[in-house]
Amino acid sequence: MFFRHTTNENHRVASLVNRNPANPYIQMLGRSQAKQLNARDVKSVEALPEGTPFEIIYKNLLLSQFASQGVKKQRKHLEAALKKAEQVGAKEIFLRQDNLTLESVINISEKINSQWVESLARACLDRINSRNALLNFRGEQLTHREIEVLKYLSTSKSIEQIGRTLHISKNTMKTHLRNIYRKLNVSDRNQAAEVAKEKLLV
Questions:
Q1: Could you tell me which residue ranges the HTH luxR-type domain spans (predicted)?
Q2: Three-state secondary structure along 118-161?
Q3: Closest of 117, 160, 183, 145 to residue 35, by C-alpha
């Protein structure tokens, strides 16, 4: 499970989600991948298992992303995730998070007396810088919406399914795809997905 998510095998995660509609943990994994978590999910996340170090890390990472809980609780959950991650040497699960989470790790590292966390914070900064530098293609930057679409291109979903998931009309999807292909200098979704993975955009 964590191997599939943290190594960014999106199509496998999508397949797991589709095959396990009754499993709350897997469904939460799918929603987090699609960045569709909301306040109603807090209790569901709190009910997730903590049987392994990675489950503890992932659960606390998810909880740290709920702004509705307040900054103190967010920081508490992030610290818990970092503490467990340090014990097992799990860095990559953090480096696969969005830039906002990476920035939170960097900020909190200043308050934690740990060489391991400091090392992770430096890696987070490097990852942010790499992403920002690689977001510019041919002088044009991908929009937030285009990046959302791009993340789904490496999954098994059809273009129509991606549009429905993101609540985007067919014509608007076509426009997004044309812009993505042009900015990435590719000709189809497979090439776009490969470039995105290579450049750590998804």
A1: 135-200
A2: HHHHHHHHHHHHHHHHHCEECCEECCHHHHHHHHHCCCCCCHHH
A3: 145
Distance CA 121, CA 34 (A): 25
Joined together, the tokens standing for residue 123 give 């890696």
Select from 143, 197, 171 the least CA-distant residue to 11.
Answer: 197
Q: How far lies 133's CA from each of 12, 69, 123, 180, in Å?
A: 28, 32, 15, 17
Residues with Cβ within 8 Å of residue 186, at least 6 apart in sequence: 192, 195
The angle formed by the CA atoms of residues 128, 129 and 134, to the nearest 5 degrees, is 100
Question: Could you tell me if 149 and 180 are in contact, meaning their C-beta atoms sit under 8 angstroms apart?
Answer: yes
Residue type, 67: A
For residue 106, give both structure tokens.
């960097």
CA 138 vs CA 16, 93, 179, 186, 197: distances in Å: 36, 31, 12, 12, 18
Segment holding 31, helix H or strand E: helix 24-33
Percent of the chain with pLDDT over 70: 74
Q: What is the pTM of this model?
A: 0.54
